[in-house]
Design a protein that fits this description.
There is one protein chain. The chain is mainly β. A 5-stranded mixed β-sheet has the order 2-9-8-4-6, with no helix packed on it. The longest helix has 17 residues. It is elongated, with a radius of gyration of 37 Å.
């Protein structure tokens, strides 16, 4: 009797070769088949906290924009929200290739600012998902010399014959002692006198409205020279508002 096992094994081996050589029905998707991202704008940070600075300091920061898309990113506009915030040369960030970065330098002038400060900048691009992004500068600004109130208001009646006064408090916030000159009024309708409360630290300035008084609002400006290089001049605005007296009706 002859055995046929070798024939069967050969048949199975041949079938295995055919199955191995047959193409798979589940082929991987070709590269690039996914939808394109387009230009995408992303920032390392959208907000910069500059901490605490003295009034008059220039705060500078460079925001870095990255194109995380697969098409050129075009930044068309960088618009600060106020006049105290300016934009430096950002021409190299106007067009950013995929995977590349561009710099947007921002400067904040803190002259005249005090307390908690937040300033925004709008950046416009061809990023369809986020065409406008907001950047921000935040922090605290303190003045070397504190003046309270910064504007002096005096309310006067037309038939008043005595002077009307308001007291302005001036406080030195620095470690070094402060010296002040005598105050000067730019208007003959006001005069001011300076009094030292604590030498080098605290002062009081009395502003007086001088009669005769006419109906309406009279403006004035009082200035003092200081020994502080950061705030060499103190300016206080004064307004005298004169109101007519209304006689009460007789019973």
């Amino acid at each position: 009797m002859k055995f046929k096992f070798p024939v069967i094994c050969a048949s199975l081996f041949g079938a295995g070769l055919m199955a191995a050589s047959a193409p798979s029905l589940a082929q991987p998707a070709p590269a690039g088949a996914a939808s394109a991202l387009g230009p995408r704008m992303a920032f390392a940070t959208n907000a910069y906290d500059f901490g605490k600075v003295i009034s008059g300091a220039l705060v500078k920061y460079v925001f870095v924009a990255t194109n995380i898309g697969d098409q050129p990113l075009l930044i068309s506009k960088v618009a600060p929200g106020c006049h105290c915030t300016t934009v430096g040369d950002w021409s190299k960030a106007h067009q950013i290739a995929p995977g590349q970065t561009g710099e947007i330098p921002i400067q904040l002038d803190t002259h005249g600012l005090q307390g908690t400060v937040s300033r925004s900048i709008k950046v416009t691009s061809n990023d369809k998902l986020a065409p406008v992004q907001n950047l921000a500068l935040r922090g605290t600004v303190w003045k070397a010399i504190k003046v309270t109130p910064e504007i002096a208001y005096l309310s006067i009646n037309t038939n008043a014959t005595s002077n009307s006064t308001v007291v302005v408090h001036i406080t030195n916030e620095l470690d070094a002692p402060l010296t002040l000159s005598d105050p000067i009024s730019a208007s003959a309708s006001f005069k001011a006198e300076l009094k030292t409360v604590t030498p080098g630290r605290d002062f009081e300035m009395t502003i007086t409205a001088i009669p005769p008084f006419k109906p309406g609002r009279t403006p004035g400006i009082i200035t003092l020279q200081t020994s502080c290089t950061n705030m060499p001049v103190i300016t206080v605005r004064a307004y005298a508002t004169v109101q007519r007296m209304v006689n009460a009706a007789s019973p």
